[in-house]
Amino acid sequence: MLRWLIGGGREPQGLAETSSVQTIGEEQIQNPYTELLVLKGHQDIVRFLVQIDDYRFASAGDDGIVFLWNAQTGEKLFELHGHTHKITAIAPFSSSDASEEKNHFILTASADRTVIVWDCTSGRQVQKVSCFHSTVKCLTVLQRLDVWLSGGSDLCVWNRKLDLLCKTSHLTDAGISALVELPKNCVAAAVGKELIIFRLIASNDGSEGWNVLEIKRLVDHQDNILSLVSVNDVQPEIKLPQSPNETSVQHLTSDEECVFAAIGKGIYVYNLQMKRVIACQRTAHDSSVLHIEKLPNRQLISCSEDGSVRVWELREKQQLPAEPVPTGFFNMWGFGRANKQANQAPKKMQDNTPMYFLELVGDLIGHSSAVQMFLYFGELGLATCSADHLVILWKNGERESRLRSLRLFQKLAQNGDLQLKF
C-alpha cells in the first residue's frame, strides 16, 4: 500500500510511546468507501469545503477560485471567479424568509481584502465588499439573528444586504483567527493567545442595528489558539503545564457527550460527563492530524499531513484494565479542576466506568499531499480536499453498484429489451 509521509511532531509530555501507526489489511472489509471520484479544477492548495445543502458543496483555496460540486455525481456546477488572491475563509448561509423559496448563498473572504456573496443557484456574484483594512481570516453566520460576522484586525457585524451594522475598534495586527457562536447572543473570538468574548446587543432606537460589546478576555493559553468549539454543561479551568508543550491541538469538534481532539499525530476522545479521556490513539497518522469529525454511527474520520484519510470506530473494552492517561494531559486540555479532590475523582471512576478504544476500520489512500479537511454526506459518501489541488469524492462501493444495476434495469425496461419469463 502506497503511503506519502511528511514529517511529524512530538507527543505531549508523558504520552510519548514507541508504537507505530496502526495498519489495516488490503481488503478492509469494514470500510464502505471503496470507490472514488477525482474532481479536478483547482490550480493550488484546496483548503476549504463547505456543505450547501444535502447534495451540493463548495471548495476553495489558494487559487482564489470557488467551485460548486454535486456530491452525488461529482459534476462541476459552477466555477466562481472574483477574488485576486487566495481565499482565507468561507461560510454558507440561506435565506430566512419563510414566504420565499429557500435560497442558498456562500460568503468568501480573500487575502485581496474583499468579501463576496455568491448565489449558489445561479453561480453569480451578488455583492462584493472592499472596505476592509486587513485580510478577513474567518466568517461566521448567526442564522438566528440574521447577521454574519467577519473577523480580521477587528470584528464586524453585517446584515444580509451587506450593510455594516457595527464593528469593534482595532484589536491587534495579528487579527481574529477563529470565531464560534455562544449562547445569549455571544461569540468567542480567538486573537493570538487570547480568547475574547463579545455580546451582540440590539440597538435601542428600533432600527435593525446592533452593537458589539466586549465582556471578557481569557488569557490562559501559552501559544496561539488554533481551534474553537462550543460545548454545554462543562466548567473548564485552564491549567497548562509550566514547561512549553511542543504539540499543537490542530482541530476540535464535539457532540452532546464528548469532545474529539486532533493533537499532534493522535486523536483523543474526552467525555464531558466523566471529565476524562475515555479513548485515544496516540499515533493515528504518520504526521499531524489536521481535521477530525464524529459520524452518527460511533465512527470518527481523521485526515493528516501524510495524505491519508482514516476511519475509526469507537468501541467499548470488555473487562480489560486500561492504563490511565496522565492528569497533566487533562490540564493541558483545560478540562477539570487542578486541585487534589478533582485529581482523585477519576481514579475512583476508573474501576466502574467503561473504557473505549479506537479501532481502525478504513484507510483511504488517494491524495498525494496533506489532506486539509473533509465533508461527510451520509449515504452520498465523503468529500476530501488536499494540497495536491484535488477534491476526491469517496463512495460506498456496494451502494454505487446497486444503483448502477438499478439504472441498467430501468433503461432496459424503458427500451423494451427486458423480457420477463414465468
In short:
The chain has helices at residues 327-333, 340-349, 397-415, and strands at 33-39, 46-51, 56-61, 66-70, 76-80, 87-94, 104-110, 115-119, 125-129, 138-142, 147-151, 155-158, 164-167, 178-182, 186-191, 194-202, 210-218, 249-254, 258-263, 266-271, 276-281, 289-294, 299-304, 308-316, 356-365, 371-376, 382-386, 391-396. By secondary structure, the chain is mainly β.
Describe the 3D structure.
With 422 residues, this protein is mainly beta. It is 9% helix and 41% strand. It is built from three helices and 28 strands. It has helices at 327-333, 340-349, 397-415, and strands at residues 33-39, 46-51, 56-61, 66-70, 76-80, 87-94, 104-110, 115-119, 125-129, 138-142, 147-151, 155-158, 164-167, 178-182, 186-191, 194-202, 210-218, 249-254, 258-263, 266-271, 276-281, 289-294, 299-304, 308-316, 356-365, 371-376, 382-386, 391-396. A four-stranded antiparallel β-sheet has the order 1-28-27-26. A four-stranded antiparallel β-sheet has the order 2-3-4-5, with no helix packed on it. Strands 6-7-8-9 form a four-stranded antiparallel β-sheet, with no helix packed on it. The chain starts with 32 loop residues before the first strand and ends in a 7-residue tail after the last helix. The model is unreliable at 1-19, 237-246, 332-343 and 345-352 (pLDDT under 50).
